[in-house]
Amino acid sequence: MQSWVNRKHGTLTFRLTQVLTGHGCFGRYLCRIGRESSSGCHHCSDSFEDTALHAVQVCSAWDEERRAIVASIRLHLSLSAVVQAMVGGQPGWDAVTSFCEAVMSAKEAAERERERSAALISRRNNRTQRRTTHDLQPP
Ligand SMILES: [Zn+2]
Fold first, then answer.
1. Radius of gyration for the alpha carbons in the chain, expressed in angstroms and rounded
2. In angstroms, what is the span from residue 52 Cα to ligand 1's centroid?
3. How far is the CA of 20 from the centre of ligand 1 (A)?
4. Vertex 111: Cα angle to 108 and 112 (nearest 5)
5. How many Å lie between the centroid of ligand 1 and the Cα of residue 23?
6. For 31-44, what is the HEC assignment?
7. What count of Cα atoms within 13 Å lies in the side-chain half-sphere of residue 104?
8. How far is the CA of 89 from the centre of ligand 1 (A)?
9. Is 75 in a helix, a strand, or coil?
10. Which tens digit of pLDDT belongs to each residue from 94-127?
11. pLDDT, tens only, 34-91
């Protein structure tokens, strides 16, 4: 059971807030706060900048999630349509929350994976460095 389900209408989840504010697992934000070196999207090759709007409206990685929410709120994903659906009642709010949860949890998982491989690479480099230093020691 997803943790956001059964909240009352109007409850902002952590991931919904990330999408609404743009402060979250988005390339542009991560780059701005120094967590990533580029602001590009890691999930598609369409964009030089990964923003909340890119994730909601454009990114091809989330086509399936987008189809589900468009079917559910019967509107295109413009900002005003999203806000209208959210304030319109529980079903619209849940559809938007569900979309944000699905997209953001996938983005977070991908970010964790990138961090993990970066950590592995830097550990490997450290080991190589140590060995190199050791090899250079006089006998
Ligand atoms: Zn993208």
1. 20
2. 10
3. 17
4. 90
5. 16
6. HHCCCCCCCCCCCC
7. 23
8. 29
9. coil
10. 989 999 999 999 999 999 999 898 888 888 776 6
11. 999 999 999 998 767 999 989 988 899 999 999 888 887 766 777 778 888 888 889 8
